[in-house]
Amino acid sequence: MRNYGMQQKQYYYLVAGLPELSLYQPQMPFPVAEWVEELEHRLHGTERAALDLLLLPADHENLLTLLAEGEVPHWAPLSRYEPEYFLGSLREGSGLPPYFHSAYEAFREEGSAFRRLPWAHRLTEGYYDYALAAGKGFVYDWLHFDRDLRNLLAGWNMRRHHLSDAYQLVGENEVTRAIRQSQARDFGQGLRYPQWGRWVQDAEIDDLAERHQNTSRLRWSFIDQALTFSYFTADVLLGYLLKLQLIEERLQADAEQGRARLEKFIHQLAETHIPE
Q1: What is the pLDDT of residues 195-239, one digit of tens each?
Q2: Burial, 240: exposed, middle or buried (Cβ in 10 Å; 0-12, 13-18, 19+)?
Q3: Which has fewest Cβ within 10 Å: 39, 153, 204, 219?
Q4: In a 3-state reduction of DSSP, which class is residue 10?
């Protein structure tokens, strides 16, 4: 396992004071936004750049809203760019990562009706190309793993439901080529990701929430393994951020399922109510 922390600044007191996290804890220790704000004050230079790189997809939402509506009435949480700078940079054609500008210009040139999926997919591909070229150490390994995992999950979904690969797979790489060509159950990626075979078994469960939990466990496990020998470094702080996001996603999904169950229960009550 790579030791990411050998030449990094140490954050002894901050790391030592962090609450322990569990993927299945009942509530957040503090909001993700508060932790991001803390990191923005603590991290500088390449460490701050790594934070911005992980959170850059928040600005995808701002661009997608702009393409769809012509304005951005509500700026996405955790955005890396202030509205005035973001919109001005798009008008001037510089100042943002290149894939933002290329997508914006392509949309203006096409002049067609907005369809979210193709443009979201284009931004996702651009993001991973850009981020993997800029990322180092733990951040690079996380992005590489996350992209491959997303592709493997998409490939499994395509195979199970007989879908085309349009807007499904991200990038041209060894994993996406294997998904398109391999007939093996694990797309021939079992040696690269030994846990994939186990996940495929879990993925055959029809319950979407349970399948999502399986994926979250894979991501959580990767973070733990990647940071085994990093103790008080910025990588640990960034891994903590990723874990907070996984917990937040799980809690939001639980809340949505709870609302759905309540609505179903109320609907059933209404159907069985007999007027006097």
Answers
A1: 777 766 666 666 777 778 888 998 999 999 999 989 899 999 999
A2: buried
A3: 204
A4: strand
The answer to whether 236 and 30 are in contact (CB under 8 A) is no
Name residues whose C-beta falls within 8 Å of residue 155's C-beta, 6 or more positions apart in sequence. 168, 169, 176, 179, 187
Are 55 and 127 in contact by the 8 Å Cβ rule? The answer is no
Cβ contacts of residue 259 below 8 Å, gap of 6+?
none
Report pLDDT digits (tens) over 102-150: 999 999 998 778 999 999 999 999 999 999 999 999 999 999 999 999 9
Question: At residue 10, what are phi and psi to the nearest 5 degrees?
Answer: -100, 140
Instruction: Please tell me the pTM assigned to this model.
Output: 0.87
Print burial letters for 62-100: b (CB count within 10 Å at least 16), e (below 16). Answer: bbbbbbeeeebeebbebbbbeeeebeebbeeeeebbebb
DSSP code per residue over 238-270? HHHHHHHHHHHHHHHHHHHHHHHHHHHHHHHHH
Helix, strand, coil share of the chain (percent; to 5): 65, 0, 35
Write the CB contacts of 33 (distance below 8 Å, at least 6 apart in sequence).
77, 78
Asked if 178 contacts 189 with a C-beta cutoff of 8 angstroms, the reply is yes
Q: Collect all residues with Cβ–Cβ distance below 8 Å to 241 and sequence separation of at least 6.
A: 32, 35, 36, 39, 51, 54
- If you search the block for the tokens 């030592």, which residue do you land on? 16
Sign, CA dihedral 200-174-132-115, equals: negative
Please state, in angstroms and rounded to a whole number, the distance separating the CA atoms of residues 256 and 244.
18
Residue 11: CB atoms within 10 A of its CB come to 19
* CB 199 within 8 Å of CB 218: yes
